[in-house]
């Protein structure tokens, strides 16, 4: 019976991982859309846990290396995206201004939806103290918020929530990564008191 030494196992493991890195990179590149972890695992014919480990290593590899792309994960879906620091150059290539800034009203409305979702337009209006129709429409056009159901109340108003595009734009894996609302309010109060002095 042939003995396999530990070093041979490690080398075999590394070559398998390199092979899987290459395959996953090709899958994500060709897809252009996010791929679910379970689908990647099925294509590789690997366990989901092992596939997740490979994807995590790939994410670290893209961060460490001077690459123009990175691997992001949102709700167990993985996608290759360009690094934000190269956005200006990509825009020149595409000759579009995809990074149009949001108005103050749209930013306020987006923050309210992000922290209070699911929420109705009337509730957003109440928090802001002004109508938010145009801001909500803009956020929907930019695919940052979406209809996420209807409130069980007279008139059955639409409920709004954030989208995966919202997570992508703010480089979040999930909503739990949003900063604590209390700490943001405390920072705003501190800045206001410094400005008033």
Automatic annotation (TrEMBL):
Transmembrane segments: none annotated. Signal peptide: none annotated. It is found in: Cytoplasm. GO terms for biological process: cell division; chromosome separation; DNA replication. InterPro entries: ScpB_csome_segregation (IPR005234), WH-like_DNA-bd_sf (IPR036388), WH_DNA-bd_sf (IPR036390). GO terms for cellular component: cytoplasm. SUPFAM superfamilies: Winged helix' DNA-binding domain. The keyword Cytoplasm applies. Pfam families: SMC_ScpB (PF04079). Keywords: Cell cycle, Cell division, Chromosome partition, Cytoplasm. The keyword Cytoplasm applies. Homodimer. Homodimerization may be required to stabilize the binding of ScpA to the Smc head domains. Component of a cohesin-like complex composed of ScpA, ScpB and the Smc homodimer, in which ScpA and ScpB bind to the head domain of Smc. The presence of the three proteins is required for the association of the complex with DNA. HAMAP family: ScpB (MF_01804). Belongs to the ScpB family. Participates in chromosomal partition during cell division. May act via the formation of a condensin-like complex containing Smc and ScpA that pull DNA away from mid-cell into both cell halves. This is Segregation and condensation protein B. It comes from Clostridium acidisoli DSM 12555.
């Amino acid at each position: 019976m042939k003995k396999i030494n530990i070093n041979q196992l490690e080398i075999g493991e590394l070559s398998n991982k390199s092979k899987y890195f290459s395959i996953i990179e090709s899958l994500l590149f060709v897809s252009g859309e996010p791929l679910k972890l379970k689908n990647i695992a099925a294509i590789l014919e690997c366990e989901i846990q092992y596939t997740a480990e490979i994807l995590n290593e790939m994410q670290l590899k893209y961060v460490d290396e001077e690459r123009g792309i990175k691997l992001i994960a949102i709700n167990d879906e993985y996608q290759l995206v360009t690094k934000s620091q190269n956005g200006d150059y990509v825009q020149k290539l595409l000759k579009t201004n995809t990074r149009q800034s949001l108005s103050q009203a749209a930013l306020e409305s987006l923050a309210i939806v992000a922290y209070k979702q699911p929420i109705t337009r009337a509730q957003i209006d109440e928090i802001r103290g002004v109508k938010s129709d145009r801001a909500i429409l803009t956020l929907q056009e930019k695919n940052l918020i979406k209809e996420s159901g209807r409130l069980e109340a007279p008139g059955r108003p639409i409920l709004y929530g954030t989208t995966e595009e919202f997570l992508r734009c703010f480089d979040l894996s999930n909503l739990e990564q949003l900063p604590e609302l209390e700490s943001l309010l405390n920072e705003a109060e501190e800045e206001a008191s410094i400005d008033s002095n």
